[in-house]
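Batch manifest, entry 17 of 40.
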Amino acid sequence: MQAWRTDSELAAARRDLAATIPGYVAPAAYGIARVDSGELTFGAVNAVGSSHRLPAVVLASVCGYIDRTGTYPLTREQLAAAAVLLAPAEAATHVDHPNLWSWRELLADAEPSSDYLAFFVTTDGDEPVDAHDAEFRALLRRSASA
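Output type: structure tokens
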């Protein structure tokens, strides 16, 4: 199995995967949530300035994000596929992997009826696109002020 151990390998993986998404624009912020009976349970939140750019392109590759702020529905299978795609990053033991860990936790704690949403904010000033995105933005604001 492939393993990305160094910062250079992580950066190369990000570049290579981004190259498979024509027009890909790295988001200013992104995150994921599980939806259970309309309630959101958020995984890792990557605010503006986050250094976790590889998980963003991995998530984009499974949900269809290219370059527009939005809320992107995901199936359990798509989120599981994203976790598998990102797993080689764990070989880089000198950095934490909060996105991968939170994705796995969201999957492990899921009900059969759970759905998932990915949130991408292309530009910091973009307005929320729906009520779930507004909730994500509120969480971004809280995490930025903490």
